[in-house]
Write a structure and sequence with these properties.
By secondary structure, the protein is an alpha+beta fold. About 45% of the residues lie in helices and about 20% in strands. Among the domains are: about 30 residues; about 100 residues, Chitinase A, domain 3, CATH 3.10.50; about 120 residues; about 80 residues, no CATH class; about 100 residues, Chitinase A, domain 3, CATH 3.10.50. The chain has a four-stranded antiparallel sheet, with helices on both faces. Strands 11-4-13-12 form a four-stranded antiparallel sheet, with helices on both faces. It is globular and about 100 Å long.
Length: about 700
Amino acid sequence: MALIGKIRRNSWLLVFLLALGLIGFIMMDMTSGQTSVFGSDAATMATIDGRKLSINEFNRTEQLLYRGGGGDTYSQREFLWNYYVDETLMKKEADALGLGISKDELIDLQFGTNVSPIIQQRFRDPNTFQVDRARLNEFKRQIDENEMTDPSIRGFWAHQEKEIQTDRLKTKIGNLVSKAMYAPSWMAEMASNDQYATVDFAYVQVPFDAIDNSEVTLDDNDFQAYLNTNKARYMQDEETRRIEYTTFNVSPTAQDSADIFKQMQELAADFRTIDNDTVFVETNYGTFDHTYKKKAELDASISDTIFRMPVGSVYGPYLKDGAYEIAKVLDRKIIPDSVQARHILISAQNDPQQFFNARRTIDSLKNLIETGAERFDSLAVKFSQDPGSGAKGGMLDYAAPGAMVKPFNDVLFYSGEPGNLYTVGSQFGVHLIEIMGRNYESNESGAQVQFLREVIVPSEDTQNALYQKALEFTSTNKTRESMLAAVAADDNLEVESSQALKANDFNMGTLGTGESSRQMVRWAFGPNASVDAVSPDVYIYQDEVNYYNNKYVIASLKSIQPAGMPTVAGVRDDIEPQVINMKKTDMILAAVQGKDMNGIASQYSTSIDTTKSANFNSTFLAGLGNEPKVVARAMQMAQGDTSEPIRGENGVYVIKVVNKPKNITPANIAQMRQTISQSTKAQIPILLPQQLRETANVEDNRSRFY
């Protein structure tokens, strides 16, 4: 009772505490979540010239375009990101110019005679390489009759319309820019002179490797001097970081190989006694192939054995290309050199309903022929959709093995017999086939052989053991210095360095793309990464063919390079070869000072060579290679002049102009102007979007989300 009385006397305190808790709860709700009342937007992936792009919208579009389609996820996201940037910038530019896409124009771009390149790409018939009008018209019918009920298809088509409009606006704006391109006469005359003016010159080269690298001493001033004279090449508008990493490569052990060999031995024993070879092969992840292989078509290491073995025999396991194989000879027979057949084709695309309808039609035609109600040739003329053979009663020319698509070929040469009718599906549709004749000239046998194959891959135990070793490595070595020392002490490990990485990169050079590469970059740009730190995670890479863990990677952050000009420390390793060559140039210049070409050639045990008909358009010259500075200097000199030493790409040169024709054949200036204009206009579709992106105000937060 005393406690209750005390609470009553201080009730104001209880009310205050409850109110404070309620206010805190409300404030937490207001400032958290994807959108707060104070304007923060946790779901905003980017802001592109004022347009907010949410991660939710981006993810929905990604699902519509790529769900179940395979391919590299991060490459697809990069493509989609570029689309959203282009869509925003092109629409903004089009609005400012008064450009747009009318409803009729949009319909024409989707279904008319002037279909968009996007439609041409997505609705291309793989056989004719033309737009598949039947498939396209089916989509149009569903839209017109409001029968497109699948939400994912509706969403896909709605997004595709936006893609088409963006592409069309890009073309219209590009055309406007193209109309403004102009090549004046002076430019055409200069281009003509660059193209037709030539020079012959003698040269002596002192290659950079004439001085050993050990003779060159470098300090920070040398590196800084090189950067100062190459600012445009190294200036960067975005922060970059470099990762150093070591890789634990997973390889099968001798025990792994022995275990797989034993499994294959047991499989071979079952293969010898099994009754149903087809089921056995397919059950053990093989593919049953009806073809008969001639001796020359089999691997040379087993071909003699296969043709000596009795039918029904099994050979193996034997080692081939990193796997154990088993071969069983099911049959042998003489293979015809060519076969003549006739067929009726009912076309069908990659659509189950079309194939069902085509097969039903073929079954009806087959029944008419087998009952004698109709003749094969008559039905081929009436119904076959093969334009080449239909008018000839379905008759085809004699064909050699492999000339037809595989299902058709298998019936003609291996499983079919003359006089019988066979129904076969292929990429073209459904065929009704009759074999008319076979030619036997070589009388060469073929063997029907089935193979079972098991790749030698590391076992789960092997993978796990190396993973544990990688975990121990990263837990023991928490700094880059410690990691480098541990790698130096282990002959099985080495250190690699990444290229300069940006926040949204997903390619780790030799490691390739994928989830692990992307997560490594995200760590390097994350709040917990600092220079010389080692990632606490071990990054796992999979073999893309056999799907086992083939690499465990441990990363450290080597350097951070802010936007702007790099520091010497940030790019020292990258520019060291160029700085060495710069210093070698100074050393060679001092050594050849005051000497003529003969003296230089004698000093460095080289010779004086000559190059002919060089001009500004020469990208590669015999003996010289790619030396634009040398060619440019030669074009400036008069006949008989000798140059000062020139620092080139591959060494230091001294040149003497021996022939410089004065009478240059003039070009057709009008034609040259047209050539320049066309060349410039051809670059607009690439350069225009790039320029708009460079000048746009883009706040890119993609790395927060993926």
